[in-house]
Amino acid sequence: MRPFLYFRDPLFLIGCAAYALNRFVVKHYIHRGFFHDHFNDCWLIPCALPPVLWLHQRLGLRPHNAPPQFLEIFAHLIFWSLLFEWIGPKFVHGTTSDPMDVVAYFTGGLIAWIWWQRDSWLKARPAHEF
């Protein structure tokens, strides 16, 4: 299995570029709808998890360099969903809770998990199935 690339992971790099493009260009022209309200939320796991896991690995909290596992992704999804959509709006003035943000976090997390596990799934399939 290939080691996880953290800051050089293709999904991380694409996600950060897509996030920045949407945040600084697209949102100035589109004032409502998916690209304004939820597109960037889909990139939470692909963009935020690799740096966090890199830090965990450097601190000795993550004993391997494998791609993110389901429980690592799920635990961070739960934590960030609670932080951004429940705790944050209670304490940070001007923020609101949006359940659709949580749906976007989980959708992006699921797609990221599938992407990060693709090598192990391809190796598990017999060659005659291709």
Topology:
Blueprint: H1 10-24, H2 34-37, H3 44-58, H4 70-91, H5 99-124
Helix pairs in contact: 1-3, 4-5
Question: How would you explain this protein's 3D organization?
Answer:
The chain has 130 residues and is mostly helical. It is built from five helices and no strands. The longest helix is centred in the last third of the chain and has 26 residues, at 99-124. It is globular, with a radius of gyration of 16 Å. The model has no long low-confidence stretch (mean pLDDT 94).
Poorly predicted parts: none
Give the beta-strand count.
0
Output the number of helix runs: 5
Distance N to C terminus: 20 Å
Q: What percentage of amino acids are in beta strands?
A: under 5%
Helix content: 55-70%
Structural class: mainly alpha
What kind of sheet is the major sheet? none
Instruction: Let me know the average pLDDT.
Output: 94
Write down the secondary-structure element order: HHHHH
Rg, Cα atoms, Å: 16 Å
General shape? globular
